[in-house]
RNA sequence: GCUCCCGUAGCUCAAUGGAUAGAGUAGGUCUCUUCUAAGGACUUGAUGUAGGUUCGAUUCCUACCGGGAGCACCA
């Protein structure tokens, strides 16, 4: 439809004798200002009357009314016939409604979550997990082929700290204990560094055993959380596998790209970073180079998205600069997507670990506020993360997250459940063949769903979908309050058709966001 | 100190360079006892400061103020 309007305006411009330049066709923020709006009247002020006249004469059947408004906007209003057909389209396509093919054949890899074995899966991991998996679904809905992968740090000092603690017989939260000793006790620090080396070279049987068992248990516990959150990874990559290759890539480019400095090998980009430390071990930076190559070998992507926290924004900038020199083809396809931090109101402390709050604990806390329903709790958490733009910190207010009125996952789930209940109780069939005189706001929102999904994919902005669904749910509530949906009124089948379309769009939207669409609540 | 990110209603968030800066909550005034009151109507209220570019700036540029993150051998 948007294309159609654009073409029409192009023709209009030609007919009044101007070379078509830049102009925008968009949905105005306020429905009063029409369904589509264009700024051509501002761009070509002196011709606006003529342009309007041309459009009026050549009005497509979907458009009911055109008018000039404000400083020269041309607003277009869709006809009730258009809405009627959009309802038909929605019920016809059902679960497919909203899918597009514009990214068809495009291969995307999304790396997200990236927890470290031996450490807690804390609330900080919920952000990349929810954002990454939702973005993956958005890409899929746009026709792309998507692989979700998880890159985990199974070697390194943090692992040594945990292994050391386990060796001391500490079973509860070994990393926390090991980390504490590392900082406070010089002797423990030495032992931990020794263990770190042994983990790399696998020379000590006892340590190998502790390491293997701990790694396994840790990874298994992550799987339980993924299951709860509904995340499915296509593959897992580990730092223990990327280090060697990364080191080799760096070593092959000493001189031109990397240089020696104080015993380490560094890259001097927008700031200097160490890629191989003075002990000859690859750092995170080098490992990420190796990871890029390994990931590409697994799946030759057209786009590689890496979702991480904001705090390594600078780090990634430099890694991508270095990658641009040694693996230029891959660097071009890589997109770093940093997200903000998930914060809880101050004063909230974990009961078990002291400083970090695990994802598990948060889910339990939210559950307590929703009569123990895990599906509702998960939906509430996901919505809180997805409702706002990626990149900004989130203040997670538990009470707000489960608020039944307004802006929450529960609100969407209720609206959906309510529409289900209406459809169940109705004794008539939904029928969109006889549209009503007046269109309701909800009709003017429903057909936009595919556009929203497309835009969310293009701009890496799942929050467009979340906020759209909330607006849609609100207009559904409004519709519900003002219209007798089930009645003897001859128009009621059309109203039911609206409810049915809403039901479909809401279900599809919740699917994309990964929020459980509960039939009943 | 340097670099990056962010400053929008009392609070939590929106706004592809466009119209009267939108929502939700909180506050105020009403309303509905229903097919899920987990409603509905009206209302109060905001772009940190000072410049610049533009027909038009929350958006782009510069400086300042305020908050957060990062600053080479941790990940």
Distance between the termini: 37 Å
Provide the low-confidence segments as ranges: 347-354
Query: What is the CATH topology assignment of the domain at 83-99 and 383-513?
Result: Isoleucyl-tRNA Synthetase, Domain 1
- Average pLDDT number: 89
Give the neighbour order of strands across the main sheet. Answer: 7-6-5-11-12
**Approximate helicity band:** 40-55%
Q: Give the tally of β-strands.
A: 14
Mind summarizing the main beta sheet? 5 strands, parallel
CATH class of the domain at 83-99 and 383-513: Mainly Alpha
Taking all Cα atoms into account, the compactness measure Rg is 28 Å
Assigned CATH architecture of the domain at 83-99 and 383-513: Orthogonal Bundle
- Sum up the overall morphology in one term: globular
Compute the number of helices: 21
- CATH homologous superfamily identity of the domain at 83-99 and 383-513: Isoleucyl-tRNA Synthetase, Domain 1
**What portion of residues belong to β-strands?**
5-15%
Structural class: alpha/beta
Based on the model shown, name its key terms.
RNA-binding, Gyrase A, domain 2, four-stranded antiparallel beta sheet, alpha/beta, Isoleucyl-tRNA Synthetase, Domain 1, single chain
Please tell me about this protein's structure.
There is one protein chain. The strands form four sheets. A five-stranded parallel β-sheet has the order 7-6-5-11-12, with helices on both faces. Strands 1-2-4-3 form a four-stranded antiparallel β-sheet. Among the domains are: 2-78, Arginyl tRNA synthetase N-terminal domain (Gyrase A, domain 2); 83-99 and 383-513, Isoleucyl-tRNA Synthetase, Domain 1, CATH 1.10.730. Strand 3 and strand 4 (73-78) form a beta hairpin. It is of the alpha/beta class and 521 residues long. The chain has helices at 2-15, 40-43, 48-57, 80-93, 123-141, 157-167, 174-184, 186-201, 205-229, 239-252, 284-298, 313-326, 328-333, 359-368, 374-386, 398-401, 409-425, 441-446, 449-458, 463-482, 492-513, and strands spanning 25-26, 36-38, 63-69, 73-78, 107-111, 145-152, 235-238, 258-261, 264-268, 272-276, 303-309, 334-339, 342-343, 394-395. Mean pLDDT is 89; it is low at 347-354. It is globular. Helix 6 (157-167) packs across helix 9 (205-229). The protein binds one RNA strand of 75 nucleotides through strand 9, strand 10, helix 11, helix 12 and strand 14.
């Amino acid at each position: 439809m948007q294309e159609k309007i654009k073409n029409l305006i192009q023709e209009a411009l030609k007919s009044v004798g101007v070379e078509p330049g830049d102009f925008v066709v968009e949905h105005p923020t306020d429905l009063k200002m029409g369904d589509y709006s264009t700024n051509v009247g501002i761009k070509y002020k002196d011709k606006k009357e003529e342009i309007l006249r041309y459009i009026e004469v050549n009005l497509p059947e979907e458009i009911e009314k055109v008018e000039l408004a404000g400083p020269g906007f041309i607003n277009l209003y869709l006809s009730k016939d258009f809405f009627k057909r959009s309802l038909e389209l929605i019920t016809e396509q059902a679960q497919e409604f909203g899918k597009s093919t514009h990214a068809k054949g495009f291969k995307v890899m999304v790396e997200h979550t990236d927890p470290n074995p031996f450490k807690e899966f804390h609330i900080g991991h919920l952000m990349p997990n929810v954002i990454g998996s939702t973005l993956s679904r958005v890409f899929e809905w746009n026709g792309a082929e998507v692989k979700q992968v998880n890159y985990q740090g199974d070697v390194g000092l943090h692992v040594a700290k945990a292994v050391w603690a386990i060796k001391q017989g500490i079973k509860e939260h070994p990393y926390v204990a090991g980390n504490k000793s590392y900082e406070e006790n010089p002797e423990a620090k030495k032992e931990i560094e020794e263990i770190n080396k042994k983990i790399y070279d696998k020379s000590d049987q006892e340590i190998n055993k502790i390491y293997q068992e701990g790694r396994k248990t840790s990874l298994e516990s992550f799987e339980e959380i993924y299951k709860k959150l509904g995340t499915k990874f296509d593959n897992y990559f580990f730092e223990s596998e990327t280090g060697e290759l990364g080191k080799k890539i760096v070593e092959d480019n000493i001189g031109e790209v990397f240089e020696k400095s104080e015993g380490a090998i560094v890259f001097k980009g927008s700031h200097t970073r160490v890629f191989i430390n003075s002990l000859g071990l690859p750092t995170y930076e080098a490992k990420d180079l190796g990871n890029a190559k390994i990931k590409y070998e697994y799946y030759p992507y057209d786009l590689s998205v890496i979702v991480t926290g904001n705090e390594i924004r600078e780090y990634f900038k430099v890694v991508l600069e270095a990658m641009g020199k040694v693996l230029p083809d891959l660097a071009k396809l890589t997109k770093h997507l940093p997200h903000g931090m998930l914060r809880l109101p101050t004063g909230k402390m974990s009961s078990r670990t002291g400083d970090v709050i695990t994802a598990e604990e948060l889910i339990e806390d939210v559950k307590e506020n929703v009569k123990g329903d895990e599906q509702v709790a998960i939906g509430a958490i996901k919505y809180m993360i997805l409702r706002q733009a990626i990149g900004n910190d989130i203040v997670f207010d538990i009470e707000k997250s489960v608020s039944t009125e307004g802006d929450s996952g529960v609100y969407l789930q209720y609206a959906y459940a309510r529409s289900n209940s209406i459809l169940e109780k109705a004794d008539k069939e939904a029928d969109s063949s006889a549209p009503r005189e007046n269109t309701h706001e909800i009709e003017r929102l429903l057909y936009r769903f595919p556009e929203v999904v497309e835009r969310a994919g293009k701009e890496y902005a799942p929050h467009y979908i979340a906020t759209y669904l909330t607006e849609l749910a609100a207009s559904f509530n409004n519709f519900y309050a003002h219209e007798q949906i089930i009645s003897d009124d001859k128009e009621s089948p059309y109203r039911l058709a609206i409810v049915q379309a809403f039901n479909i769009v809401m279900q599809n939207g919740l699917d994309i966001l990964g929020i459980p669409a509960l039939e009943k609540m």
